[in-house]
């Protein structure tokens, strides 16, 4: 922890902290101007990497030992693996971790494996794992294919008007699903199935009769379960002429969307499925397409000492954009290093490529940014709003065209409900959440509060009159989504603190009277969440059951969100904000790093299924909050002044 000079007035201490942390943030800047932090998920991604190697008939002793050490370090006392550090055990994550450890040479009779096996069997065994885990088990011959939902590759040829069409699911579902369609159609089999895990099943898999479940318990779900049985019975009779054409269409999609060394969809599960699909279809190891697909996976590996994990994706645009906001708040508008960050971002704008989103917005010009280095088929609405706001705040005319194109695209991506989804508009075919494949509950990309708030903030910051209609529709959507206690659900961050912060910081620029009852209710809810130490904390358990998230301690990221939310609601001179600032001032920070010390996961991939630790959140958000407090607390008429 950096020491503060004793005896200085608190504002001087805060100023010194802001200067010091801003310099540290600039200190990790790459030569081309951008910043990128690690992005960490749970045990499943590194475990799946081990499975990928064996599917291909490969092994790598050094890497497998690194994964083994990483997995063992994350095991809970009860033998399970959680979806986030400190969370409850998850059956599917634990099955994959156990399986990978056994492949990596961990003795199945060792104490960690005995604990894991006992826990898995106590939960009903590997047959009760989720859909994606069961597909993996089928690929290795551990369960029969009837243990997975029917996923006929012929869906590639369904018309767009049909109840199911590949364009009606989220981009992440699409890119994962399409190569999987080929694997299922071919009944693909791993090259190395030598490591058996029969000990993880309560009932021998060939005797198991109950595999599929109704994901949401609805009547529609029961219909889909019946349909799944019919499809399993009918699938063997599908003519090869029909199947072959559908397989070629799926293959063409995957190869056409490979996205260079950034990979299919720029997310690990899709990349791994693409590699397995190409191997199954006979692509040679030295085929340029196979080589680039393999490289995309290699670039996700992170060594931490003698431990190896694999990132689910990378986040350079998100990290650079949010860091830019923190540094702008810290007074770096004219710093050439900030200019280099924005110039790098400008070079990443997608201006000519028309991605999958054009299915529903064919007349809208491209203008967004991806989350990763490159992902032109899937620009991210959230990133686009955040980047455009940073460029606009910096004020240089050289970004005028970037901002114009971004706002044009954002306006065009608004859904009829008034909200914005993360990657596509009108992705609201909610009946599809009832298909057996959708047990993860994240098949779709509907509008969300947090993304909508960012879009409102961006359009209102840039030109509130020009985008008045879109802003008003967005505000109506936000009001309709507010919960009775005053908070908002956070889809992409944990959870109600994130959602409520996201909304409150967009309102001033949108012209909302901060004295309105719905705004005051939100501010009051935030105040009730403050801990005695002045900080804020909300565990990912709140996605399972509201109220359970209060089991975690205060942390810098969520304290920063709550603090900025309160300041945006006109509470800059409140005791709550002062206490939150003191918490950040005194909270431990990492040596030789821009990060405050923070071990918790506060990012959300898919609620209740997949969570993320953005290593950058503990760097730029606390800096941003402290710098904003420094500016606003000294103003005669304190205003946030920007869209977020």
UniProtKB/TrEMBL annotation:
<protein>
    <submittedName>
        <fullName>Squalene--hopene cyclase</fullName>
        <ecNumber>5.4.99.17</ecNumber>
    </submittedName>
</protein>
<feature type="domain" description="Squalene cyclase C-terminal">
    <location>
        <begin position="314"/>
        <end position="630"/>
    </location>
</feature>
<dbReference type="InterPro" id="IPR006400">
    <property type="entry name" value="Hopene-cyclase"/>
</dbReference>
<dbReference type="GO" id="GO:0051007">
    <property type="term" value="F:squalene-hopene cyclase activity"/>
</dbReference>
<dbReference type="Pfam" id="PF13243">
    <property type="entry name" value="SQHop_cyclase_C"/>
</dbReference>
<comment type="pathway">
    <text>Secondary metabolite biosynthesis; hopanoid biosynthesis.</text>
</comment>
<keyword id="KW-0413">Isomerase</keyword>
<keyword id="KW-0677">Repeat</keyword>
<dbReference type="InterPro" id="IPR032696">
    <property type="entry name" value="SQ_cyclase_C"/>
</dbReference>
<dbReference type="Pfam" id="PF13249">
    <property type="entry name" value="SQHop_cyclase_N"/>
</dbReference>
<dbReference type="InterPro" id="IPR008930">
    <property type="entry name" value="Terpenoid_cyclase/PrenylTrfase"/>
</dbReference>
<dbReference type="InterPro" id="IPR018333">
    <property type="entry name" value="Squalene_cyclase"/>
</dbReference>
<dbReference type="GO" id="GO:0005811">
    <property type="term" value="C:lipid droplet"/>
</dbReference>
<comment type="similarity">
    <text>Belongs to the terpene cyclase/mutase family.</text>
</comment>
<dbReference type="GO" id="GO:0016104">
    <property type="term" value="P:triterpenoid biosynthetic process"/>
</dbReference>
<feature type="domain" description="Squalene cyclase N-terminal">
    <location>
        <begin position="19"/>
        <end position="303"/>
    </location>
</feature>
<dbReference type="InterPro" id="IPR032697">
    <property type="entry name" value="SQ_cyclase_N"/>
</dbReference>
């Amino acid at each position: 922890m950096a020491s503060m000079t004793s005896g200085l007035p608190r504002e001087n201490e805060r100023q010194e902290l802001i200067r010091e942390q801003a310099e540290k943030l600039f200190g990790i800047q790459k030569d081309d101007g951008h910043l990128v932090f690690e992005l960490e998920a749970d045990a499943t991604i590194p475990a799946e990497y081990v499975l990928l190697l064996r599917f291909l008939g490969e092994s790598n002793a050094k890497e497998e030992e690194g994964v083994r050490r990483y997995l063992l370090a994350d095991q809970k006392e009860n033998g399970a693996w959680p979806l986030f550090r400190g969370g409850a055990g998850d059956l599917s994550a634990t099955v994959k971790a156990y399986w990978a450890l056994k492949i990596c040479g961990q003795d199945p009779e060792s104490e960690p494996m005995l604990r894991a096996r006992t826990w898995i069997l106590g939960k009903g065994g590997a047959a009760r794992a989720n859909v994606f885990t069961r597909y993996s088990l089928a690929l290795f011959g551990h369960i029969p294919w009837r243990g997975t939902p029917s996923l006929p590759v012929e869906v590639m040829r369904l018309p767009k008007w049909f109840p199911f069409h590949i364009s009606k699911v989220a981009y992440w579902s699409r890119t994962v699903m399409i190569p999987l369609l080929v694997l299922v159609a071919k009944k693909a089999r791993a090259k190395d199935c030598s490591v058996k895990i029969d000990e993880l099943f309560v009932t021998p898999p060939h005797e198991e009769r109950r595999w599929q479940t109704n994901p949401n318990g609805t009547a529609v779900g029961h219909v889909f379960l019946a349909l799944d049985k019919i499809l399993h019975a009918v699938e063997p009779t599908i003519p090869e002429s029909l199947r072959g054409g559908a397989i070629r269409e799926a293959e063409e999609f995957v190869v056409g969307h490979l996205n260079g060394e950034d990979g299919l969809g720029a997310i690990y599960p899709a990349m791994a499925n693409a590699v397995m699909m190409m191997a199954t279809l006979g692509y040679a190891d030295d085929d340029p397409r196979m080589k680039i697909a393999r490289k995309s996976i290699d670039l996700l590996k992170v060594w931490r000492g003698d431990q190896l994990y694999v990132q689910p994706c990378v986040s350079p645009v998100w990290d650079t954009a949010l860091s830019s906001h923190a540094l702008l708040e810290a007074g770096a508008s004219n710093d050439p290093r900030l200019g280099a960050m924005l110039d790098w971002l400008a070079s990443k704008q997608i201006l000519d490529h028309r991605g999958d989103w054009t299915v529903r917005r064919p007349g809208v010009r491209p203008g967004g940014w991806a989350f990763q280095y490159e992902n032109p088929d899937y620009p991210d609405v959230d990133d686009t709003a955040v980047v455009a706001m940073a460029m606009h705040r910096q004020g240089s005319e050289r970004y005028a065209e970037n901002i114009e194109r971004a706002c044009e695209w954002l306006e065009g991506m608004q859904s009829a409900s008034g909200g914005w989804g993360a990657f596509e508009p009108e992705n609201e075919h909610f009946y599809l959440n009832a298909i057996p494949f959708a047990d993860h509950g994240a098949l779709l990309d509907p509008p969300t509060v947090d993304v909508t708030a960012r879009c409102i903030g961006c359009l209102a910051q840039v030109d509130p009159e020009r985008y008045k209609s879109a802003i008003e529709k967005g505000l109506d959507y936000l009001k309709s989504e507010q919960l009775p206690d005053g908070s908002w659900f956070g889809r992409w961050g944990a959870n109600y603190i994130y959602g409520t912060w996201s909304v409150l910081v967009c309102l001033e620029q949108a012209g909302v009277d901060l004295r309105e009852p719905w705004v005051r209710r939100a501010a009051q809810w935030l105040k009730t969440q403050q801990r005695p130490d002045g900080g804020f904390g909300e565990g990912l358990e709140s996605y399972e059951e509201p109220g359970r998230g209060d089991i975690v301690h205060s942390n810098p990221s969520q304290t920063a969100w709550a603090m900025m939310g309160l300041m945006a609601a006109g509470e800059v001179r409140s005791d709550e904000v002062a206490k939150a600032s003191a918490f950040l001032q005194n909270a431990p920070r990492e040596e030789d790093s821009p990060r405050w010390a923070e071990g918790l996961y506060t990012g959300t991939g898919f609620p209740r299924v997949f969570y993320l630790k953005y290593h950058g959140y503990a760097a730029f958000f606390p800096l941003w909050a402290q710098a904003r407090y420094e500016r606003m607390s000294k103003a005669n008429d304190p205003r946030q002044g920007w869209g977020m």
